[in-house]
Amino acid sequence: MLREIALLFLKLGTIGFGGPAAHVAMMEDEVVRRRGWLTREAFLDLVGATNLIPGPNSTEMAMHIGRARAGLAGLLVAGACFIVPATAMVAWIAAAYVRYGELPAGLGLLAGVKPVVLAIVLQALWRLGRLAVKTRWLAAVGTVAAAASFLGASELLVLFAAAGVMAAGRSAGGDGRAGAPALGIAAIAAPAAVGGGAAATTAGAVALGPLFLVFVKIGSVLFGSGYVLLAFLRADLVQRLHWLSDAQVLDAIAVGQVTPGPIFTTATFVGYLLAGPIGALAATVGIFLPAFVFVAASAPLIERLRGSPLVGAALDGLNVASLALMAVVTAHIARAAVSDVQSGAVALVALTLLARFGVNATWLILGGAVVGWLGSS
Fold it and tell me: In angstroms, what CA-CA distances link 240 with 157, 173, 204, 301, 308?
């Protein structure tokens, strides 16, 4: 049974292009329609459960399926096998980036990919925002969260304040407005929550312990979407620790997007840049470890969590705050992604193809790379 699980998720981790929604669709086809491991109703319950905990949703879905099929051992096997193929690919690309990324051809490839990634993030932000902003009070919470983030608030403060606002409002029998002053206070206090940063750190100077802990924290608190990872990476690695530049973070997201499997393997790329192969391993283990713990702990409580109005309200707040963080950081990365007429045209064409024709993001990134390569040759 474990062998079946391993082979299935190694396959999905190798061919799973297109992001979390595509991953979940592939899993449904394999475990419901083809194999009959789960009923459609049970599968949907697991999809809902992944939205109640932080971490990479499609990876957590793999873990839930593995647990349902073969207990804790199945959880571990499914999660690891879904992650490993993408991790190996991203580590190989990171090694090439470190060696060749500063060459003109390498810079040209990345110059074409960056505006496509910006378009992908914008399109995801629009699509997710339409689902997350269900009421005018959620819109207000999102607006204040974006203002707090713009003022420099810690991303954790923004997330937890938004969740607390909505939970407090629901607990009081309302829709969230009762807790609005709390989020306003968080916005006013935002600058005090921002840690200072040392001068820019070279890759060789990054210790494994701090690197591991940064990614454990990100994996423990990231709600909403893998694309929100961009906000967390920028807040920690660019603004607070000064380990990377905006352009390097965008390159990392691009690599996570163009490879199959979870976008959280972006951490593998960042770890390699900062501390070589062992850094890639530390960052990868750090960002995915919390997901294994959360799935194992929450799986027995799925029914209770799914039916809780209080948990649902807190989750609404977390989701809308995650999108607010994503919106603010998108404004910052746009400057690194669109620097001339060509990059602006690439971003516009990619956004049009995504929004109007639903073209797969992987093909767009490959197309952007070709445009960048031709422009540099």
Answer: 15, 39, 18, 36, 36
SS3 string of 247-283?
HHHHHHHHHHHHCCCCHHHHHHHHHHHHHHHHHHHHH
Q: Rounded to whole angstroms, how far apart are CA atoms 221 and 54?
A: 5
Residue 228 tokens read as 């929100």
Residue-wise pLDDT for 299-358, tens only, equals 888 666 656 788 878 878 888 887 888 788 788 778 878 888 989 999 999 999 988 988
Tens digit of each residue's pLDDT (9 = 90 or more) over 56-102: 989 999 999 999 999 999 999 999 999 999 999 999 999 988 887 75
Q: How many secondary structure helices (H) and strands (E) does the chain include? A: 16, 0
Count how many domains the chain has. 1
d(C-alpha 143, C-alpha 304), whole Å: 31
DSSP codes joined into one string, 165-209: HHHHHHHTTSSSGGGHHHHHHHHHTGGGG-----SPPPGGG--HH
Residue 152 contacts residue 234 (beta carbons within 8 Å): no
**255 lies in a domain?**
yes
CB 338 within 8 A of CB 347: yes
Give me the domain span that covers residue 226.
2-99+111-376
Q: How far apart are the first and last CA of the chain?
A: 51
Written as one string, the DSSP assignment of 201-216 is PPGGG--HHHHHHHHH
Claim: this prediction has a pTM higher than 0.85: no
d(CA 271, CA 58): 22
In a domain, 29, yes or no: yes
Domain presence at residue 216: yes
Q: With respect to residue 106, please indicate whether it lies within any of the assigned structural domains.
A: no
